[in-house]
UniProtKB/TrEMBL annotation, chain B:
It is found in: Cell membrane. GO terms for molecular function: transmembrane transporter activity. One of its GO terms (cellular component) is plasma membrane. It is a multi-pass membrane protein. This is Autoinducer 2 import system permease protein LsrD. The complex is composed of two ATP-binding proteins (LsrA), two transmembrane proteins (LsrC and LsrD) and a solute-binding protein (LsrB). The keyword Lipid metabolism does not apply. The chain crosses the membrane at residues 21-42, 48-69, 100-123, 168-189, 219-242, 262-288, 300-320.
Length: 516, 347
């Protein structure tokens, strides 16, 4: 009976991981431009940047999840080609995802050895559970983790799951461990524990990568900091040269980006949507704002700040703990989505394929689905000619490029799908429209068309609330911007205050100040 | 591309899609082949039409079940509900001396009620339709068997039996007339009414339906109410056909109707399919079974063939729709790749 060696692989004093001149394009969009990073053994190397700066993409390339369009990876001077996460693990590189996807019904031990349980006997081969458990215990003990190896994975908290991922990295003998924004779902105490684990690994000579938005924790734990902005490496500093102000300005960008703002505002002083003290623990609280007739209001903030949740609560999709929503003076807080739509408030969700549209249905059917009462009916049957007319009008008014109004929505491009979703809602003449990431997955040319469309709707007196993670988009079309951080409105910007730098700083500085 | 050109419908309005048309061709071929090769299958037009009395109750159940399956659900309790509806009808007539047609209406209403219970369990407690209706099917069947007692009621008045056995002018069975009316009603309801549109939308994408302001819970529940009422009605027609209540019909009823609905082209994932296809499938499957029975095959063989047809239908549909096969997996993987790229790019 040959027991496998229960001794953990000892980290060697190697693990100098380098990325040279990485470029990554997704279709027409360039996400990374010539990014070079050098990660040293025994160092925690942090990557900072705004939404869409390319942080996660960079880590995914480093961990073999996606392939760079060009550029190379080098571990201890040797060129690597990582075709898959498995290849990366083999090379000694491990990515700890923000919310690890564990198999809920497996025990901790099983989870740790998925795909490579130690075996005994040649035939019949069987799992050597004793050895597996011993090695699992040892890996957990090495990291000083208080996790029972016989526990089911589904009982673990997110923090414990992340730590378990660290232990898995050790078991696989990985020397480079990357953490993709691990702290945002964690509590202060959990963050401290995670940092304890990271410091221990650093002390043992591992090479650690880290992504975070939170200035304080970054300054606290990092040895090196690289700042990405719009896919370009704009700064790379060592611990001695850390400077909060400099990092912030690098993240936000100091040079003026020229963005043509809308010249004419249609905003009036007449409130059409009034939200007072809306709250739903733990996602958001104290949300109070007014939206005026003809106004385009923007919600800025980091991904996960609670902007979509606020919108969905207003739209009656999610429950609320407290707060009042008034539409044109009428309390709509207790109505369901069906009634809210008929009162004149609509919401175009960010995920078109899942929430916004029914892709296997036709353009016309999607357009009329928001309010089937629009279609004339006789003896309970929808009038086909009337429905075709509505579909055709929508296609014409919103310039949907299609082969015909009965074309299935899934055959259209993202931009055209979005126009259909717009047509569906605008056709019923709402007073307020909430647009969540209105140009996600839309190509550049179609974006302009959508901006023009939004402007013309405001001109007609509609109140429009836009949630967007694209700063330039908000800056370009909004009359007023509210910054949301961690479920609260932290800043309001109007007029000339609306520049990409100031909008971005309004929530990033809060992030830095509150730190957690 | 100019929009004045594009703003029109691009396809014809022929009511039957490719799948339905193929079924229709298959049906015609099968009837012709059986007529020539099986003696006794087509003796006279009226006897041929009379064959439908053997299987149209299954068709009635299939119509109701189609609505449920279009929402992406399943109702395994239709068999038990049919039995329960018929038994309650018969007991009301026999023991309470209720006029039989009033009892029929109460029986159908009871079917709707047990459907409502199914629907509420599924939507309110967020239960899997498969499990919920499997559980309630046991309950409904037990209640039915208990109510029926040792000797189930039989010997209904002739006016009632005519519903199952009679024919107008000795030619067109009442069953066929009832089924035709229901089939047209359901076809219009599903393809042309706002209600049908909502059912299909919920079936394709329940989340999107909710974000479009549809009251998904109510719509799904209503589908089970329809299915329950249709099942009870079918049970009552069966009772009229046998002039007796048979609480043991549940399983074969369920197997056959699910086969019919799937063969008719309704996707078990919801959304896809038409009532027209189901109607053709009712006739195709029904005449096939009758043909085989007349030709002397045992009931076991025909049941086996039913199972084989179910398997074939689902396999072919999956191949065609690119779902659940190796090819489909590849297609989906490429699609996902594209989508991931999109989301990546916008992150």
């Amino acid at each position: 009976m040959a027991l496998p060696d229960p001794v953990l692989p000892t980290p060697m004093q190697v693990g100098f991981y380098e990325a040279r001149d990485l470029n990554k394009r997704f279709g027409p969009v360039t996400v990374l431009r010539g990014v070079s990073l050098a990660m040293q053994p025994g160092h925690i190397h942090t990557i900072m940047g705004e939404n869409g700066a390319g942080k996660s993409t960079a880590f995914k390339i480093l961990a073999g999840l996606i392939q760079p369009s060009s550029g190379s990876l080098h571990l201890d001077g040797q060129a690597l080609s990582l075709a898959s996460p498995a290849a990366a693990h083999h090379a000694g590189i491990y990515l700890v995802p923000q919310e690890p996807a564990l198999m809920p019904e497996l025990t901790v031990t099983e989870t740790m050895f998925v795909g490579q349980l130690p075996t005994m006997w040649k035939f019949p081969r069987r799992v050597d559970w004793k050895a597996a458990r011993a090695r699992a215990c040892q890996a957990l003990a090495t990291l000083d983790l208080d996790i029972d190896p016989d526990q089911l994975a589904r009982h673990l908290s997110i923090a414990q799951q992340q730590q378990l991922e660290c232990a898995k990295a050790l078991l696989r003998g990985c020397r480079v461990i990357l953490f993709d924004e691990p702290t945002s779902p964690l509590t202060t105490h959990e963050v401290e524990r995670l940092f304890g684990t990271m410091r221990r690994l650093r002390g043992d000579g591992y090479t650690l990568g880290f992504i975070s938005h939170r200035m304080d924790e970054v300054l606290d734990i990092s040895d090196d900091i690289s700042v990405l902005r719009d896919g370009v490496l704009v700064d790379s500093v060592e611990r001695a040269a850390f400077d909060r102000v400099r990092l912030l300005s690098k993240m936000v960008g100091r040079e003026m980006r020229v963005i043509p703002r809308r010249q004419i505002s249609h905003a009036t002083s007449q409130p059409v949507l009034e939200v007072a003290d809306l709250a739903h623990a733990p996602r958001f609280r104290n949300v109070s704002f007014d939206l005026h007739k003809g106004e385009i209001l923007g919600f800025a903030g980091l991904v996960g700040a609670g902007r979509t949740e606020i919108a969905e609560t207003i739209f009656g999709i999610r429950a609320r703990d407290k707060g009042i929503v008034r539409l044109a003076g009428e309390d709509i807080s207790d109505l369901d989505t069906h009634d809210i739509i008929r009162k004149g408030l609509v919401y175009a969700p960010e995920d078109r394929a899942r929430h916004g549209a029914v892709l296997p249905m036709s353009i016309t059917e999607n357009v009329t689905s928001g309010l089937l009462e629009r279609v004339r009916s006789r003896a309970g049957l929808l009038s086909r000619s009337d429905e075709d007319r509505i579909g055709a009008e929508t296609v014409q008014r919103y310039r949907v490029r299609c082969a015909g109004t009965d074309q299935k929505l899934r055959q259209l491009s993202g931009g055209n799908q979005q126009k259909v979703v717009f047509g569906k809602w605008m056709g019923i003449g709402p007073d307020v429209a909430i647009l969540d990431e209105p140009t996600r997955g839309v190509d550049v040319g179609a974006k302009d068309e959508i901006y023009d469309l939004i402007d013309s709707l405001a001109q007609e007196g509609m109140g429009i609330l836009i949630i967007s993670s694209e700063l330039e988009e908000l800056v370009r079309i909004c009359d007023r911007i509210l910054s949301i951080y961690d479920g609260e409105i932290v800043a309001e910007l109007t007029g000339d205050e609306i520049t990409p730098e100031r909008v971005s700083a309004s929530y990033l500085t809060t992030a830095a100040a509150s730190g957690r | 591309m100019s929009n004045s050109v594009t703003a029109r419908r691009s396809r014809s309005r022929f009511p039957l899609g490719g799948w339905e048309s193929s079924l229709l061709v298959l049906f015609v071929l099968q009837v012709l082949a059986s007529s020539f090769s099986i003696p006794g299958f087509f003796d006279s037009f009226s006897s041929w039409l009379g064959l439908t009395e053997n299987f149209l109750p299954f068709g009635i159940v299939a119509l109701g079940l189609s609505v449920v399956i279009l929402t992406g659900g399943i109702d395994l309790s239709v068999g038990s509900t049919a039995g329960l509806g018929a038994i309650v009808m018969a007991e009301l007539w026999l023991h309470l001396g209720m006029p039989i047609w009033i009892a029929v209406m109460i029986g159908v209403a009871l079917g709707a009620l047990v459907g409502l219970i199914n629907g509420l369990i599924i939507t309110r407690f967020n239960t899997e339709p498969l499990i919920a209706t499997l559980a309630t099917s046991f309950i409904y069947r037990s209640v039915g068997t208990a109510l029926a007692g040792e000797s189930p009621p039989s010997g209904f008045p002739d006016s009632f039996n005519a519903l199952g056995q009679g024919a107008i002018g000795g030619l067109i069975p009442y069953q066929l007339i009832l089924f035709s009316i229901l089939a047209v009603l359901f076809a219009l309801l599903m393809s042309r009414s706002a209600y049908g549109r909502k059912i299909v939308m919920v079936g394709y994408n329940g989340d999107a339906a909710r974000y479009s302001g549809l009251r998904v819970g109510r719509i799904v529940t209503s589908a089970y109410v329809i299915s329950g009422a249709m099942a009870a009605l079918a049970g009552i027609v069966l009772a009229a056909y046998y002039s007796a209540v048979r609480p043991d019909m549940g399983d074969i009823l369920l197997l056959t109707t699910i086969t019919t609905v799937v063969l008719g082209g309704i996707s078990i994932f919801g959304g896809e399919g038409s009532i027209g296809g189901v109607v053709i499938a009712v006739l195709l499957l029904g005449f096939l079974r009758q043909g085989m029975l007349i030709a002397g095959f045992s009931d076991m063989v025909t049941t086996m063939v039913t199972g084989a047809i179910l398997l074939a239908a689902i396999t072919i549909r999956n191949l065609l729709s690119g779902r659940g096969t190796g090819m489909a997996l590849l297609v989906r993987r490429f699609r996902n790749l594209g989508r991931d790229k999109l989301t990546e790019a916008t992150k």
